[in-house]
Amino acid sequence: MDSPSKDVEFEKSFNEMISTLPKRKSWGIPEDYFQYQGFWLHPTYLKGVVSAQQQFQAQSTDIMLCNLPKTGTTWLKSLIFAIVTRASFDDSTSPLLSKLPHEVVPFMELYHADFPTYRDHGVPVLATHVPYSSLPRSILDSGCKIVYVCRNPKDSFVSLYHFNTTILTSMNLQPLDLYEAFEMFCEGVSVYGPYWDHVLGYWKASLEHPDKILFLQYEEMKDDNVLYVKKLAEFIGYPFTSDEHRTEVPEKIVKMCSFENLSNLEVNRSEKGGMIQNNMYFRKGKVGDWMNCLTSEMAERLDRITQQKLSGSGLSIHF
Ligand code: PAP
């Protein structure tokens, strides 16, 4: 991939491969979804996923943040970045005060598609929405730490729906009808969906490898954020010292990365960022906002599907 002829070869084999995949109309963005290894992806991401599968080299010291879109990426990126970089920056000097969390922690599949051989080893944190079963082999072999965050499917759907609608409106495109998007989500056709398969893949892996995969829930973190930030720091190998506990460093990190703080920073209120503007990553940041969007029938249906899909897995998520 680092020489032009390899680029051409990759493009050719990728185009051949994608032409054989099942395809579905997406939620309105003029790029279809393609079903790759059981999950629905837009070609832009898919190209990065395939490229990463072929050549991404994880290091044992890496920390991979994995999750579905709209389940807490921005929040967890900022928390992990703040924990890992706290020897260099505090809550008045952190790059998080002037950069979007997505700028300081890149996405493996986006950055890998563009810069396949480049790695910034300074901050060993990367994020991905890739399902567990499709992770590049080197992530599993390197023994690096994986942090997975899951969010209840009703809030995840509503967040995704609003995000999608905002993007389409900004592109002067017709947003997908709520009921149509809901039908597709229930069928498993959403970006990196089916939702339940994604969650269960990481859940089962976290039971098998509890020392390598930390499974978190957005709602539990919201409930007791300091406790979970301490757990997170411990798990990724950056535990807080007793001195840091005494001077309330975990509390300061929680505050700096809170929705209230981040969403009010100039950089995160800004409309820069092209198709996806910075401010689109910050909407309400609440648990239970689905109540303002879904009918009780829709909520019951999603709950029923979730109960069926998770039954027997031992995973109980917040409805
Ligand atoms: P991404 O996967 O596309 O990067 P992601 O950050 O997971 O998006 O999702 C955005 C959601 O996280 C939004 O939820 P909402 O639509 O229900 O409001 C956003 O508001 C929320 N969010 C962003 N930052 C934070 C934060 N610091 N704490 C809690 N929630 C947050």
Outline:
The chain is an alpha/beta fold and 319 residues long.
Which key features would you list for this structure?
alpha/beta; 9% strand; globular; single chain; binds 3'-phosphate-adenosine-5'-diphosphate; 4-stranded parallel β-sheet; Rossmann fold; 3-stranded antiparallel β-sheet; 319 residues; 16 helices
Architecture overview:
It is an enzyme of class 2 (transferase). Belongs to the sulfotransferase 1 family. Keywords: Transferase. The protein is an alpha/beta fold and 319 residues long. It has one domain: P-loop containing nucleotide triphosphate hydrolases (Rossmann fold). It is 48% helix and 9% strand. It contains 16 helices and seven strands. A four-stranded parallel β-sheet has the order 5-4-6-7, sandwiched between helices. A three-stranded antiparallel β-sheet has the order 1-2-3. Strand 1 and strand 2 form a beta hairpin. Helix 2 crosses helix 5 and helix 11 packs across helix 13. The longest helix has 18 residues. It is globular. The chain starts with a helix and ends in a 9-residue tail after the last helix. The mean pLDDT is 93. Bound molecules: 3'-phosphate-adenosine-5'-diphosphate (PAP). The site of 3'-phosphate-adenosine-5'-diphosphate has 20 residues, from helix 3, helix 7 and helix 14.
What percentage of residues falls in helices of 4 or more residues?
Answer: 40-55%
Query: SSE order in H/E notation?
Result: HEEEHEHHHEHEHHHEHHHHHHH
Tally of discrete structural domains: 1
CATH superfamily: P-loop containing nucleotide triphosphate hydrolases
CATH class category name: Alpha Beta
Average the pLDDT over all residues and give the rounded result: 93
Bound molecules: 3'-phosphate-adenosine-5'-diphosphate
Biggest sheet, spatial arrangement of strands: 5-4-6-7
Please state the structural category.
alpha/beta
Distance between the termini: 44 Å
> What is the radius of gyration computed over CA atoms, rounded to a whole number of angstroms?
19 Å
CATH topology: Rossmann fold
- Helix count from the secondary structure assignment: 16
Q: Strand count, sense and closure of the main sheet?
A: 4 strands, parallel
Indicate the overall shape. globular
- Percent range for β-strand residues: 5-15%
CATH architecture: 3-Layer(aba) Sandwich
Number of strands: 7
Low-confidence stretches: none
